Amino acid sequence: MFCFQCQETAKNTGCTIKGVCGKPEETANLQDLLIYVLRGVSVYGEKAKELGILDKKTGLFIAQSLFTTITNANWDNQRFISLIKEGLKNREELKAKFLTAYKEKNGEEFSEQLHHSATWYSDNEAEFHEKAKEIGILATENEDVRSLRELLIIGLKGVAAYADHAAILGFEKEDIYAFLMEALASTTKDLSVDEMVAMVMKCGEVAVNTMALLDEANTSAYGHPEITEVNLGVRNNPGILISGHDLKDMEELLKQTEGTGIDVYTHGEMLPANYYPAFKKYDHFAGNYGGSWWHQNKEFESFNGPILMTTNCIIPIKKNNTYQDRIFTTGMTGYPGAKHIPDRPESGAKDFSEIIELAKKCDSPIEIETGKIVGGFAHNQVLALADKVVDAVKSGAIKRFVVMAGCDGRQKARNYFTEVAEQLPKDTVILTAGCAKYRYNKLDLGDIGGIPRILDAGQCNDSYSLAVIALKLKEVFELDDINDLPISFDIGWYEQKAVAVLLALLFLGVKGIRLGPTLPAFVSPTVLNVLVDKFDIKPTGEVEADIEAMMAGN
Ligand code: SF4
Ligand code: SF4
Question: Fewest CB within 10 A of the end CB: N or C in the chain?
Fold first, then answer.
């Protein structure tokens, strides 16, 4: 196996025996084969689009399949085998349609030689494992070509996850799906470095559009997030813990648990569900339990009740954990031995009754902390406070905004983000989104004239909100360049959605981003030089020096 898609990859080079995340070799290889099959589907998809015969079904399948390969999303080999088979079936159907349409249009058979990912076929699982060994990441020998192709594929995975969330709420755009295929098909071609860099930048543009679509989907379904105090303690009823990012699952779980005597708590990246008006109205929505994803072995244990994982991040259950029978997956997630809640039927809801029945037999959660945290500062809420914020900047009460969005992770080096938050001057405001916030969102950093010093916009996809806020400030201060704002970017990354967010920021013209705790292993020295030259990207460094530089606008 070879996988280097996340920040915790072995020796910051690549996992080769087993993932640091726990991903076994067999799973890694099946994920590689699934990507290979998707590249083949995309070769035909790109051609079918030229003839106007592409439907949304293939695009959604590609988005969902890419989503399953994100770090800590799906650990179920059988699911990957099913998706590989379904992908090959989709490709053959698309091929048949394309060949017919081509002949009709051109009066002759299609005879172009296609990339092997578009012609390889097998329905034999043993062959899947053999083939997977030939077509992994290292099959691309040139380090820079590999780096640019993987940077693109990794960014696409993030875009795909956001596209799937939007589709679940009925918001789909054909041009997003078409780009997934164009980009995947591009990895089967011999492109120049400039062409590959251009494709990566286009991925950033599509990431912005996809996050905007998801923002529209979320806010039209559930209202605009608003300032909210979230309870961290527990009540006496049994509870269900819901994690991941899927708000439709949240909605259906809240509806189905109403009046049952079961409370619902969020974990990890589901925390921002507390900020939505449509969810706040439920009395049995009790607050948030615990911290970011990597604490789950401990926190799922003490929660006592069932846990519903709607998306990543799921981490392997340890030998001494007892929650194997209490953890459920749904959507694109999966875990061997965990019960998977099937998709909702057309115009219906998912059936969470088994989880609810189990919760009734469980003890209530053990309290692990008390108090409240404040969040809900997505673009609509912040823009409602715009006058106050602008006055504070003009009067000098706010000297600088520091965007510390992204992911959390296990490495000790991530204390950097806690220390930056603690040591930033009192006239700075931290803008955050994603689970990176758990490194500092329980610190008491106070406020500036009533504006809290940590403004949490929501999940990682709500980084879009942070971009909207920055663009609005640029307009209010009549600046030509977003980089002239008193704003610095100090981003923590872990998995592939954060890469999509990073590419989105680059597309929006943001320069001088600090990225940590390490730079991605999939960026080769040559590609890094391009990123440094064009965007002045730099690694996070020493806390004091970084704060000094940021305060000086560097
Ligand atoms: S997802 Fe990360 S930790 Fe897991 S195998 Fe890949 S690079 Fe390694
Ligand atoms: S921000 Fe990234 S690392 Fe954090 S829970 Fe979401 S997907 Fe996982």
Answer: C
